[in-house]
Amino acid sequence: MTIAVMKTKAELAIAEQFAGVIGSLPGGAEVARARRGAMAVFGEMGLPHRRIEEWKYTDLRVALKDPVPPPSVIDGAKLTVGDLIVALGPYMELDAPRIVFVNGHYRRALSNLSGAEAINVVPLSVNFETLAEVTGDAVSALNTAFVTDGAVIDIAAGVTIEKPLLVVCLAAGRDALSSTVRHKITVGADAKATIVELFLTLQGSAVEQHMNALSEVTVGDRAQVTHVKAASDAGRATHLSNLVVTLGTDAGYRGFALTSGQALSRNQVLATFAGEGSKLDLSGAFLGRGGDHIDTTLTVDHGVPHCESREFFAGVLDGRARGIFQGKVIVRPDAQKTDGKQMARVMMLSPDAEFDSKPELEIYADDVVCGHGSTAAQIDEDLLFYCQARGIPAAEARALLVESFIGEAIDKVEHEGVRAALAQTAREWLAS
Amino acid sequence: MLEIKNLHVKIADDERVILKGLNLVVPKGEVHAIMGPNGAGKSTLAYVLAGKPDFEITDGDILWNGESILGLAPDERAAKGVFLAFQYPMEIPGVAGLTFLRTAANAVRKKRGQTEHTTPEFMKIVREKAASLNIDYEMLKRPVNVGFSGGEKKRSEILQMAMLEPTLCVLDETDSGLDIDALRIVSDGVNALRSPERAMLVITHYQRLLDYIVPDKVHVLANGVIVKTGDKDLASELEKTGYAEFEGKAA
After folding, report:
1. pLDDT tens, A310-365?
2. How far is A108 from chain B (nearest CA, A)?
3. Rounded to whole angstroms, what are the CA distances from A403 to A228, A406, A431, B148, B166?
4. Of chain A residues 396-415, which have a CB less than 8 A from chain B?
5. Across-strand partners of A347?
6. How close A285 comes to chain B (CA, Å)?
7. Residue B229: pLDDT above 60?
């Protein structure tokens, strides 16, 4: 391990933590070797910082100043189905099968997979040797080094599941922990599924929980996948995530991410078109206040012709919150007839909030349609007057207008129940 | 009764004075029309009645039922029964029409000390009123006014008015952008609300609307003051002579 390049306290602490827990982390010799390899990569890279272009606005060397909470190696938190129901809140209304992880460890007693018999859902921990190494940045390397569990979801060709499948990651306990999960979702040809990933903090638990989550999604030919993620923690969480999506031919992937209640959040998405005629729709809503820092960084890679990508993100920033949207669209030389559009909009509720938007179009093909846009606005005073003239008090009218602003993004979610639950989560955050 | 006394209004961030000592009385049960040339201050009067913050009252007062409403926020005025039908109704993306109607109706009911409508009650009332205004109920599930035609927006205003049960209705150029069929539907909607308990102020540039909503009195507003008052025949007269004789008169 090349300790020499490690500079910050957090980097040193992470290396120390790894040395302390490597013997207790799940998996055999192969997995341990992969972990050590990943840790060596992290050792060389260190935490991402502002001189790395993709991390320009989110310098983890600066942001992770405080001691990083210890890794969650053993599942010690006590909680009941009742606790889970409270934590799930509006998502309980969904009547959906669920696989539940607490502090990064599978909980059979809290999971309920009835209704998901047509698909294969198992925790990674039952066969850890399937853990694949992911090439990528330091955050992915840390994921490989520390991962304890995750959902492995296989949907066979031609299978359709009507009910959404919930993949729940709960943070619980009086002391904050660093949890690491890895989900792998494979959707066969002509299959159709809705997967909802939830990241929640149990009421009464420490609010400074850390999560490193990595999800890999493979969408088979002509398959249709809706993949929703709601990371709605208790307020001071750190959430570092990577989502890697690969689409086959004539496939469809609709991704949505709601971020709220997190002090530091990095949602990184890499979507690659591997087959022609596919459609990608990425959308999301982010809600920040206080000193929250919420970063959405997308890379959409059009490597083949005749594919369509859409990105629409809406944010609400209050206090000194900072929102970041980076959207890179790569159109490779062969990717003729690519149709790519991108939009990021924020509503600034405070003069001290900040929004940084960086679209990046790298186009190497000549017959393409690509566009991007970004807006930052305040509450429209004329609309506010209109609402008040209809008897709605100013505070309520403001909330209604902010909600409607976020609602435009949430409306991208097609599943009615999931959409309602997301809207409820956003409403609760706005009212809190 | 609406009493406007010596009202002087200027634009808040500007030195421009719009209303220059306007006096007007509209008793309950009556419909009064305000007519006048462009730029006379008609829309300003409508906005000031509803409490739009872009204007500053430099002198005078507005009394509704004997009480000054100048210190009241727009929503408080709405609770007291003031309703402005906008010349250009706003679009609110992301808020379904029904949600907006219900939020508004319940907000004023609460402030008036009435119980909030239950969902079935509310649905029933909306369905009836929408039908009478020829508004497709499905349209109300869409965001407020988004993608509506000019006529649909105006009908949507009258539906809001009917739902909020105001006692002072101010209609700002409700006829603008309406074809003859829409004009009839909107006018029928307004006429249905005429009652001994309600005062109405109908602001219009043209006499046409007043063929459908027949006023008890017609006032001519020019250069920030009422320059002439008459009965409904004054409107037809103005249609022939135009506003030329009033322009510059008060300046």
Report:
1. 999 999 999 999 999 999 999 999 999 999 999 999 999 999 999 999 999 999 99
2. 39
3. 19, 5, 10, 21, 27
4. 396-397, 400-401, 403-408, 411
5. A316, A377
6. 13
7. yes
In a domain, A344, yes or no: yes
Nearest C-alpha neighbor of B203 from the set B189, B220, B184: B220
Q: Do B73 and A408 touch (CB under 8 A)?
A: no
By C-alpha distance, which of B73, B81, B64 is closest to B161? B81
Domains of chain B: 2-241 (3.40.50.300)
Specify whether the backbone of B207 is left (phi greater than 0), alpha (psi in -120 to 50) or beta: alpha
Chosen for mutation from B49, B55, B92, B142 (greatest number of chain A CBs closer than 10 Å) is B92
Determine whether A207 is exposed, middle or buried from the number of CB atoms within 10 Å of its CB (0-12, 13-18, 19+). middle
Torsion, CA B15, CA B16, CA B20, CA B25, rounded to 10: -110
Domain around A197: 76-431
Indicate whether A3 pLDDT > 70: no
A46 inside domain: no
Q: CA B70 to CA B57: how far, in whole Å?
A: 8
Alpha-carbon gap: B135 to the closest alpha carbon of chain A (Å): 19
Residue A230 maps to a domain: yes
Q: What's the pLDDT tens digit per position in B131-180? A: 988 899 999 999 999 999 988 999 999 999 999 999 999 999 999 888 88
From A389, A394, A396, residue closest to B84, measured CB to CB: A389
Chain B hits for A379, CB-CB cut-off 8 Å, are none
* pLDDT tens profile A47-65: 999 999 999 999 999 999 7
Pairing of strands B31-35, A293-302: unpaired
A&B contacts, CB < 8 Å? 79
pTM of the model: 0.84
Number of domains in chain A: 1
Give backbone dihedrals phi and psi of B99, rounded to 5 degrees, phi first: -60, -45
Q: ipTM for the complex?
A: 0.96
